[in-house]
Specification:
Strand content of chain B: 25-35%
Distance between the termini of chain B: 43 Å
Order of helices and strands of chain A: HHEHEHEHEHHHHHHHHHHH
CATH architecture of the largest domain in chain B: 3-Layer(aba) Sandwich
Largest sheet of chain A: 4 strands, mixed
Oligomer: heterodimer
Shape of chain A: elongated
Structural class of chain A: mainly alpha
CATH superfamily of the largest domain in chain B: P-loop containing nucleotide triphosphate hydrolases
Strand order of the largest sheet of chain A: 2-1-3-4
Number of helices of chain A: 16
Helix content of chain A: 55-70%
Chain lengths: ~375, ~325
């Protein structure tokens, strides 16, 4: 087991790198975990509005009253432009003379005038609010309400809250699948990084031409040599996978409950795929100095193209088409099902994981062929 | 039991149209320091690679310790130590770890290996550097580590392929002394080099190779006896009239006399007192002479006479 011991000895020299990567990844995940809890909540903001009522009718008063329930109606002693400039007022609304009459006639234009900061969010917000109000009043009058009732009903309709819920998310919750959304989503990046930056240099070091030459002259059989390296690699991949699965369990409560156990399978397959990528990298790169560059290029490229950092739903068609040819794409597909971003479908999940496994097999075959080609070229 | 360690019969190795080894035949006996001498590209390393079954060959037969050598002849490989031109050690391991690893490829017993590693460290004089990584070692120390990794398992046959390339003179001497000691301890050595001085210094028998062929074989004395030249006289002088040069050329046993860069070079073939006769002629014609030297023929002369070219290019 001399070669296996050598593998472990060289791997031991990479411990600092492994710890560094793990800590950085955990810190990143913890950061995302905390930030995601606030990202998903929305609060209505109240604008400071100055209103000039030139119509002075019950309808305009009703509008002012309704605006008052949603925003803060303020008065300003400053010039309105100064007030807008200094931010003491967000919006200056003028209800035009003839508002009630025009509204009753079904007009939608010329009801209001406004002064505001150019292209501020308050403009969009207030314009949308007024449009919605006018549309509601018109809908009520069209339904046969008189003006007084229409104004009341419009305000009531606008106050109605509609419960919106994500069907797939609910399904996820029911199966305990929503766990691990941050941690398992980013896992391909760290697995690729750890495999390429650690396993590739170890492989390159062991297979350095001069030392391989010396080993080939020795009494060690090539199959034994290969098997010992394989054993070392399997132990490393297994150790990294276990480490991150334990971390997943600690960071995400109930990560493996319900169908969540599929996270174990999905990440396990991806760890194997990453290991084969690392083996290929070790065979193709000319020197160990280029490993870090290759590691960054591969892990970042795959992460961005496959939806690790940005959800797949937000990726362009071209990116998606390229991503299909990368294993992380299918990992994320399964992960999205498990976190509830997509409807869970057991047969599809199995199909996606099989595609991932297919990548592992293909990469393994390519690695074998490359190894044989290299052996032949060394003989030349 | 035969004392032949290596027997190579009519070995042919082709790289496409190029014939790297052309019906090479060698026989190396137990306890010899056998030198393979030849210019770069003459086929020395190819011979070693075929010998170790690292290269397949087109024709011929190789026997080591009386058994056919093949890639799966692990019992034969167990008794061979290899030290190649390029330093082959792991940068991540210390001196001791490196020697232990390579020794462990042959010796399974932990206690025995520990002793062997210690012996190898002492042999190459790396006691003070056992915890050093290779990158911290100087070029000479690195070469010594390379040798230690190749001989730690105490092989019966040691193959050294140009182990002193790019090594300072002090380290080179240390390495050559080490090889002689290994031979005294019972190992048969194959030493390849294009430095004839090294081969002359340590090898008991020498084969000279060129273009994949063995062009001569024997002891140094046997090889030099093969050629016409027995002595070369060199005299530095200011000017030499043509009639004096003609007189020197007419002397018996002198087959060549040339003046180049104010140096008279006279090549002799047998005979006695050639130097005295040459000096007498110069004195009789009042030729002012400077430094006078005589040289015995070298392996380079042997190579030059057989192939018509020098063993090493100038500057090599």
């Amino acid at each position: 087991m001399q070669v296996f011991k050598l593998f472990m000895l060289i791997l031991k020299k990479k411990t600092k790198l492994i710890i560094l990567f793990t800590i950085a990844f955990m810190a990143l995940c913890i950061g995302f975990l905390f930030s995601s809890s606030t990202d998903e909540k929305f609060t209505e903001s109240r604008l400071k509005i100055v209103i000039a009522d030139n119509d002075n009718t019950p309808e305009s008063k009703a509008l002012i009253e309704y605006i008052g329930t949603k925003h803060d109606i303020v008065t300003s002693k400053m010039d309105i432009k100064d007030a807008l400039f200094f931010g003491t007022v967000d919006y200056f609304l003028t209800i035009n003379d003839g508002y009630a009459k025009n509204l009753a006639d079904g007009a939608t234009e010329g009801l209001f005038k406004s002064q505001h900061v150019y292209e501020s969010y308050s403009v969009a917000y207030m314009s949308s609010f007024l449009d919605e109000y006018v549309s509601c009043v018109r809908a009520c009058t069209a339904a046969g309400d008189d003006m007084e009732t229409a104004v009341k009903n419009a305000a009531a309709a606008m106050d109605t809250n509609t419960e919106v819920s994500m069907i797939s998310s609910e399904a996820g919750n029911a199966n305990g699948l929503e766990s691990g959304k941050g941690f398992f989503r980013y896992l391909p990046y760290i697995l690729l990084s750890l495999m390429i930056s650690v396993l590739s240099p170890v492989m390159m070091s062991i297979n350095k031409k001069e030392v391989r030459f010396r080993t080939n002259c020795s009494a060690v059989r090539p199959t034994s040599f290969m098997m010992q390296i394989l054993l070392g690699s399997v132990i490393y991949v297994l150790a990294i996978w276990v480490l991150f699965m334990v971390a997943g369990a600690l960071m995400e409560n109930g990560a493996y409950s319900g169908m969540g156990w599929l996270n174990l399978v999905n990440s396990g397959i991806f760890a194997v795929v990453s290991a084969f990528i690392a083996v290929l990298v070790s065979m193709l790169l000319p020197s160990q100095q280029t490993v870090n560059l290759a590691c960054n290029v591969i892990s970042l490229f795959m992460s961005f193209m496959c939806g690790v950092f940005v959800p797949q739903a937000m990726l362009g068609k071209t990116v998606i088409s390229i991503g299909r040819f990368l294993p992380a794409f299918w990992y994320i597909k399964v992960s999205d099902m498990l976190t509830g971003a997509q409807v869970f479908n057991a047969s599809k999940a199995a199909q996606y994981m099989l595609i991932e496994a297919g990548f592992a097999v293909a990469l393994g075959i390519i690695a074998m062929l490359l190894y044989k080609t290299k052996l032949r070229s060394n003989e030349m | 039991m035969s004392d032949t360690v290596i027997k190579i019969d009519s070995l042919v190795k082709r790289y496409g149209e190029l014939i790297a080894l052309d019906h090479l035949a060698l026989e190396i006996k137990q306890g010899e320091v056998f030198g393979l001498l030849g210019p770069n590209g003459s086929g020395k390393t190819t011979t070693i690679n075929c010998l170790l079954s690292l290269l397949s060959y087109d024709k011929g037969k190789i026997q080591i310790f009386g058994r056919d050598m093949s890639p799966t002849a692990y019992d034969i490989k167990r008794d061979i130590g290899v030290i190649m031109q390029n330093v082959a050690v792991y940068d991540e391991l210390t001196v001791q770890e490196n020697i232990d690893y390579f020794c462990g490829l042959y010796i399974a017993d932990k206690e025995q290996r520990k002793q062997y590693v210690e012996d190898a460290i002492k042999f190459v004089g790396l006691e003070d550097f056992r915890k050093f990584r290779p990158k911290k070692l100087s070029g000479g120390l690195l070469r010594r580590l390379n040798i230690a990794c190749g001989i730690a398992h105490k092989p019966k046959l040691i193959i050294l392929d140009e182990p002193t390339v790019a090594v300072d003179p002090q380290s080179r001497n240390k390495i050559l002394e080490g090889i002689e000691e290994l031979n005294r301890n019972g190992a048969t050595i194959i030493y390849t080099s294009h430095y004839m001085e090294e081969v002359e210094q340590i090898c008991t028998r020498i084969a000279i190779m060129d273009k994949g062929k063995k062009i001569a074989e024997g002891t140094k004395e046997e090889l030099t006896a093969m050629i016409k030249n027995t002595e070369t006289i060199k005299v530095t002088l200011h000017e030499l009239p043509d009639e004096v040069l003609s007189e020197i050329r007419s002397l018996p046993h002198i087959y060549s006399a040339e003046v180049e860069d104010s140096t008279l070079t006279v090549s002799c073939s047998g005979g006695k007192h050639n130097l005295i006769r040459v000096l007498e002629i110069l004195q009789n014609h009042d030729v002012h002479i400077g430094r006078v030297t005589t040289e015995q023929p070298t392996l380079n002369d042997v190579f030059l006479e057989i192939t018509g070219k020098a063993l090493r290019d100038k500057g090599e």
